[in-house]
Amino acid sequence: MKKSRQVFIGLEIHAQLKTKSKMFCSCPADIWQAEPNTRVCPTCLGLPGALPTINKRALEEVLLLALALNCRINQRCYFERKNYFYPDLPKGYQITQHRRPLGEEGFLPLGARKIKIFDVHLEEDTGKTIHFREKGEAYSLLDFNKSGLPLVEIVSAPELRSADEAVAYCQQIQRLLRFLDISEADLEKGQLRFEVNLSLGTGPQLPSYRVEVKNLNSFRFVRKAIEFEIKRQEELLRKGVSLTSETRGFDEEKEVTIRQRSKEAALDYRYFPEPDLPPLEIDSTWLKKIGQAMPELPWAAEKRLQEKFKLRADEARIISQEKKWLQFFDQAVALGLPPARVARTLVNRPQWRDRTAAELAAHWAAEEKNRLRNQEELQKVVAEVLAAAPAVVADWQKGKKNALNFLLGQVMRQTQGRADPQLTRELLEKALGKLSKN
Amino acid sequence: MVLNELTLTKAREGLREKKFKARDLTEACLEQIERSEPHLKSFITVVADFARKRADWADKILQNQPQEAKKYPLLGIPYSLKDLFCTAGILTTAGSRMLENFVPPYNATVYQRLEAAGAVLLGKTNLDAFAHGSSTEASDFFVTRNPWKIEHLPGGSSGGSAASVVAHQAIFSLGTETGGSIRQPAAWCGAVGLKPTYGRVSRYGVIAMASSLDCPGPITKSVADAAFVLQVIAGHDPRDATSSPLPRPFYPRALKNSLAGIKIGYARQYLEEPVLPAVAAAVEETFTVFEKLGAEIKEIELLDPAYAIAVYTILQRAEVFSNLARYDGLRYGYSLLRRGEKIEAADIYELIAANRGQGFGAEAKKRIMLGAYTLAESLSADLEEPFYWLGQKMRTRIVADFARAFGEVDLIIGPTSPTTALKLGAREKNPLFGEMEDRLVEPSTIAGLPGISLRCGFVDQLPVGLQIIGPQFKEDLVLRAAYAYEQATDWHLYQPPLFSSTRRSRRHYRV
């Protein structure tokens, strides 16, 4: 009999923060499609003697996120150096947080569950290495535009149980980042990156090993990597192989994971407090101010839409997906528009999502003004429609009540949508009733 | 009047009173450099044409715009800069083969401030590679000599700076100190060397040795000169997050001839073995001078400097390990590929290792190895935490110990170095040579305290350095005591016979 194993998935998510300048220098953070190595300075190039200074805005954004994730805030904390060699790491170390992250021990609501968050911390991005071949020769080029961009890393506990749940978690984080307006979280631009930690156990106990899959840059790859790993690990365990910790990469073409290094070769990053930056002391008044600026969180909004406006669950979820849409909805309701209709419009007509509630109100008012309410005129159209569709009329007479909707649609078409639906319906029913009596 | 032998204070006066031109002053220094360099070897780079242009620019202002000239506190004053400060467009080697061709695209804040003050850069001075050493013998290029005795060492790592000032190649110089690198060469060469409080002077653009300790400071011919240079370079720098936002006093105003009411402490261990008895005696003789100036001399307890050596070694090596990681030869610096050398590297890591293997000297490699050890989690299984963290805790104890001592006294004095300048080759015998030589300055450097070294005598025609340490950000008090002592004695009047026009009779040297 096939043993059912417990899946343990933890996620490490890196998101690029929304700031004007980089994390530790004043280079612009907007690097999208910029010429390589044009958004650089001595600091983010790691030149001898250059020093970092802290971007306060980035700090504020991470604190906001940590508060949203219900974390304990370490008001006294510090940056550390993570030491390792790589060509696109120009200082030979990354400035990050390790022992004392800004936020610790929070949770993310996910449906009925609360996924535990281990830590939320601030760090800098590395540069980019571009490998290519030309005339049989292999080249690697370095672009440091990305070097020093502010990143927030969100580390979850290994509490996710399936690929579906892991992807939902990633999407929930993306939604939160956008809601808080602290990251565009655009996957296309590489602003959201994922690392999956996965292991399989026989019971509720967390296994002693874990496999880390690095560098996943889409929800699809997160799913594929998890599905592949579950299958791979299950097979090995079935064969009686005892698994050990390792780090794996993901081959995007073959959709398989590939071993990079084993735990035995695990790197000692020799973390120590960054001596170029004084320890952080988060002022309580400042923290309070950040907390007070907290917008309604997406899951709270979702609940409110259902409870207060009686929206359907799927409608509430879609509208609370983006802050902009939620604002649209709230503004429209405040303008006196019917909530259910606004919700339907937002869900079914995505083109409206980029416009404003005021525009919708104006549009509907114009529609209303234009409405064909002249009974005589409408009756004429109704008679025409009924005359042109005897088969449908017969259907209705046989009891197919759906036929009415078709006829209603026909009237709408004839009048270019100007017909008042309520009145038309009444007139149709009346006319059909008359026809039957005759 | 031999222009290059003037102090900064006298040179300023002369320029303002139009007794001579900035160009004359610069030429005098350049001539002295040309004359003395073959023997002294204090410069890695001399920028003679650049200096002449700057001097001519200064002259134009001095001659035509006397009001404008007041805006430049160091207008027309030629100086030398330790080759650890980044100077845009001018070779900056850190005394290392790794950076032998490195021309930075930007300026250190301190250099920028000196330029803005109108000073005239003569060149960049020799140092132990990456400031790792106390003799300049660890320079990857050559050894600088002591101006008093050519077969002796100048100390280090700012040895080139100290030698260039005492040998009158430059009117003043700028060094950096991590653990004695300003005060010890100042002591051995007989200059005034001021190590400010950590954070008082910006580190931006100073090639890092140990970031939590590094501090630039002046090396000058007199205490007043040091106060003047400090005034120009000190102050908050938004580019250095560890620089202090505290306002700076006007240091030259602190200089007074009286020390009435000032309590000065000394600790017994700073005068005992391995401190040479003649050095200890010279320092003890200063006590009566200070008392005559109105100060009270008091013996105090301080932690044994041996603890500081251990703490300093652990912390400094760890930070060196990390700070030197950027030198991989891929983007700048020593590169086997760019040198056109044939190498066999299986991957990028082997290439980096090959570049570093050849670009770094023996001392840098030793320090990297030791730092990698003191930081490693994986190598400290039998310790609660890596050595680095234990060292940090001990550092806190040392800081507290000084804070306690400064509850009792205003200043602390002692010898700067246990010895006078040693002979060439002294370093080779002892891998911890620097730490032994710097044992008397390392405790205060760990606590981030300001300290000054100035002459307090001679032993065998070599100067003896007296150090005065103060509480954090009390440079003004340190300078005041040093100035009062200097003015009450005549040690500062002696000139190195080989490198000056005037000389004092040898019988004045303490034997």
Task: Detail the topology: elements first, then pairings.
The complex is a heterodimer of chains A (438) and B (511).
Chain A: E1 6-16, H1 56-68, E2 72-73, E3 76-77, E4 80-83, E5 93-96, E6 103-110, E7 113-124, E8 128-134, E9 137-143, E10 150-156, H2 163-179, E11 192-201, E12 211-216, H3 219-238, E13 246-251, E14 256-262, E15 272-273, E16 280-281, H4 284-292, H5 298-309, H6 313-319, H7 323-334, H8 339-348, H9 357-370, H10 375-388, H11 390-397, H12 403-414, H13 421-437
Parallel strand pairs in A: 12-13
Antiparallel strand pairs in A: 1-10, 1-11, 2-6, 3-16, 4-5, 4-15, 6-7, 7-10, 8-9, 11-12, 13-14
Helix pairs in contact in A: 2-3, 5-6, 6-8, 7-8, 7-9, 10-12, 10-13, 11-12, 12-13
Chain B: H1 8-16, H2 22-40, E1 43-46, H3 48-64, H4 66-69, E2 78-82, H5 109-116, E3 120-125, H6 159-166, E4 172-177, H7 183-189, E5 192-195, E6 215-220, H8 223-233, E7 263-267, H9 277-292, E8 296-300, H10 305-323, H11 348-359, H12 362-375, H13 387-408, E9 411-415, H14 433-437, H15 442-446, E10 451-459, E11 462-469, H16 475-488
Parallel strand pairs in B: 2-3, 2-4, 7-8, 7-9
Antiparallel strand pairs in B: 1-3, 4-6, 5-6, 5-10, 9-11, 10-11
What does this structure look like?
The complex is a heterodimer of chains A (438) and B (511). Chain A has 438 residues and is an alpha+beta fold. Chain A has helices spanning 56-68, 163-179, 219-238, 284-292, 298-309, 313-319, 323-334, 339-348, 357-370, 375-388, 390-397, 403-414, 421-437, and strands at residues 6-16, 72-73, 76-77, 80-83, 93-96, 103-110, 113-124, 128-134, 137-143, 150-156, 192-201, 211-216, 246-251, 256-262, 272-273, 280-281. A nine-stranded mixed beta sheet of chain A has the order 2-6-7-10-1-11-12-13-14. Chain A has a three-stranded antiparallel beta sheet with strand order 5-4-15, with no helix packed on it. In chain A, strands 3-16 form a two-stranded antiparallel ribbon. In chain A, helix 7 packs antiparallel against helix 8 (339-348) and helix 7 (323-334) crosses helix 9. The radius of gyration of chain A is 29 Å and the shape is elongated. Chain B is an alpha/beta fold. In chain B, helix 2 (22-40) packs antiparallel against helix 3. In chain B, strands 1-3-2-4-6-5-10-11-9-7-8 form an eleven-stranded mixed beta sheet, with helices on both faces. Chain B starts with 7 loop residues before the first helix and ends in a 23-residue tail after the last helix. In chain B, 37% of the residues lie in helices and 12% in strands. Among the domains of chain B are: 3-253, Amidase signature (AS) domain (Amidase signature (AS) enzymes, Alpha-Beta Complex); 306-384, no CATH class. Mean pLDDT of chain B is 94; it is low at 505-511. In chain B, helix 9 (277-292) links the parallel strand 7 and strand 8 (296-300). Chain B contains 16 helices and eleven strands. Chain A binds chain B through residues 42, 45-54, 81, 83, 85-87, 90-93, 140, 142, 268, 270-272, 275-278, and chain B through 85-86, 92, 94, 99, 102, 104-106, 108, 203-208, 210-212, 238-242, 318-319, 321-322, 324-328, 330-332, 348-349, 352, 372, 375-379, 386, 388-389.
